Amino acid sequence: MHLDKNMSAQSGKITSRFVKAALGTVLLFGIGGTAMAQNMVVRSTGPSASSYPAGKKMADDAKITLKAQDKVTILTKSGTRVLSGPGTYSLAQGGGSAATASGRLSSFINNRGSSRARTGAVRGDTSAAVVTPNNPNLWFLDVTKGGRFCVTDPNGLVVWRPDYTGSATASIVEPANGNVIEIAWRKGNPLKAWPKDVLPVTDGANYRLLGSSVPQSVEVNFVVLESEPVDLDETAAMLIANGCTGQLDLLVETLNLNNEEPGDQG
Description:
The chain is of the alpha+beta class. It has helices spanning 2-29, 98-110, 232-241, 245-254; strands at 39-45, 57-58, 63-66, 71-76, 79-84, 87-90, 140-142, 147-151, 158-160, 168-173, 180-185, 191-193, 206-211, 218-224. The relative contact order is 0.16.
């Protein structure tokens, strides 16, 4: 009797651990065990662009036929694929793993600025020229980039600068009334909280930014999202739907796991 109870308790613990592990897998990869439900076009140029607009979703067994000068970037379960025409390509072909793409996305979106962006030296250059780092977070506002900017947390918006080798300032102008607020970065710090108390981050709000180390000002139009996307395809879809092309480009560049496909027939 005692043996049955012990076995039952042990079985319960194993079941509980299994359920937790399964739930973690679902949260990471989504229902169906993958980071994406479908393949999605995120960038398209050339004569066939109208056939493959940004946001178009396709099944894993879909084939894409491209003409000369065509270039289509597709977000897949394993990251991104860049296809160039002429040629016919099958989305069933391609390397990478869903886990790799999910890991990259998780790191990119969940990075809250605890580690600073890094600079590097150009190889073979004895003067050790500084390489401009990439924005480490999809939701950090780049002081050098304008356009529509999607925001998931209006009360926690962070302004990021690519050049943090010295101290710097940025002027934020509210076009409606001309109010100007200045923010300042200390040497070596790339991040600064947006002054939400005096310049609230609301849907449709427009601001002009001019950094002290930036050649020209940029205008930013905020789009406050109703909810934070939970996976790769939802993130891309939200950025496309709201016209946040700068963030979409950053997402694609960050997840660009594969090089451009050769122009042979698929």
